[in-house]
Amino acid sequence: MKMTLNITAFLSGAIFGFGLLVSGFYNPNNVLSFFDIFGDWKLGLMITFILSIIISAIAFQVIKNRSLSFANNPVQLPDTKQLDLKLFAGAALFGTGWGIAGICPGPALVLVGSLKIEVVYFFIGLIPGLFLIPIFFRK
Amino acid sequence: MEYILGGLGIGLGISILILFNGKILGVSGVIRGFLQNPVAENGWRFSLIIGLVLSPMLYQFFFDLNPFEILSSPLLLIFAGFLVGLGASLSNGCTSGHSVCGVSRLSPRSILATLIMMGFAFVTFNVLKFIL
Question: For A126, which of A33, B70, B78, B97 is 20 to 30 Å away at the CA?
Answer without folding.
Answer: A33
